[in-house]
Amino acid sequence: MISYGRQSIDEDDIKAVVETLKSDWLTTGPKVSEFEEAIADYVGAGHAVAVSSGTAALHCAMFALGIEQGDEVIVPSMTFAASANCVTYCGGKPVFADVDSETLLINHSSIKEKINGRTRAIIAVDYAGQPCDYDGLRKISDESNLKLVADGCHALGAEYKGRRVGSLADMTVFSFHPVKHIATGEGGMIVTDNSEYAERMRLFRNHGINSDFRQREQQGSWHYEMVDLGYNYRLTDIQSALGISQLRKLPGFLEIRRKIAAQYDEYFARVSVVEPLKVNDNVQHAYHLYVVKIDFTSLKINRTELFKTMREKGVGVNVHYIPVHLHPYYRKTCSTSKGMCPVAEKVYEQILSLPIHPEVSQKDVDKVVSVLLESIK
Description:
Elements: E1 2-3, H1 11-21, H2 30-43, E2 47-51, H3 54-65, E3 72-76, H4 82-89, E4 93-97, H5 108-114, E5 119-125, H6 134-143, E6 147-151, E7 159-160, E8 163-164, E9 171-175, E10 188-192, H7 195-204, H8 213-219, H9 237-268, E11 274-276, E12 283-284, E13 290-294, H10 303-312, E14 315-316, H11 328-333, H12 342-348, E15 351-354, H13 362-376
Parallel strand pairs: 1-14, 3-4, 3-5, 5-6, 6-9
Antiparallel strand pairs: 2-10, 7-8, 7-12, 9-10, 11-13, 13-15
């Protein structure tokens, strides 16, 4: 099976993990700080806070903003559920905005329609690895005194007008799940230039306690105080060692992903019923996903049948995503319904994610395309 995404681990990565396993620190140690500094330097941010997952990173960001009951945060419907769940965790309400039909990035007009006196922030999702229009988003957020959070879980290494994702919003979150650009098993990071946000998130990831074990070890002290209600969202030194090693390979990983995407683009330029998502002129796409829209109205096969056929033939396609406002939980708790985000709903019926990751070979690309085209004939 050619999977749609997977980790790429080599002997250097294994060696880095083994060295940490043999060290004095398995968690809350020096590798965590080293990984944070490396990510902050890479994206051009003042602070980085490592946590246990991309979802934890989103939760930390909402906590840092002080989101609470009665607050609303605008989120695109075409995303993974965690982009909305993080608001709900804090007692707030996610308000779902529609997306652009060509890029599946959050639609600015839809954002403006959703803003009211309870709106506190916008979460912009860099869908598939393409950065949003951050100039436009910053203008909207500044005009309404809102905070701008970038869900960059798809977009480590992407650029908008020459600036890397991570330096474009008030806070940006990343994920290091195995299908992402670099892997730590599970893991996440929040980057920001705001020292107050960073301090609040460091408390939040460690039970709300004002020092961690390594800090107390260095001070020769046992004393700590819990000053807020937090969670155990810490990342281990083992995972951080893997992340540091993986980050060194990120430029090569990105080059491979972009090469695969260009090959797909070339194939599908000749196929009228298969349309890749549009890539804006002012960005460097990170290609966490390669998503196509398929015109099933002119075909004798539907998406469910195509999905099953391609997987039976060894091509691990996927679908990203069911619009979040259509999930039963949000239908029940936020009274969402079909028709609220018509573009996301329509495009959801058309999209398919094709394999793209550093382990995909030229032979694999040829197979993916041939199986897809044979299946839709």
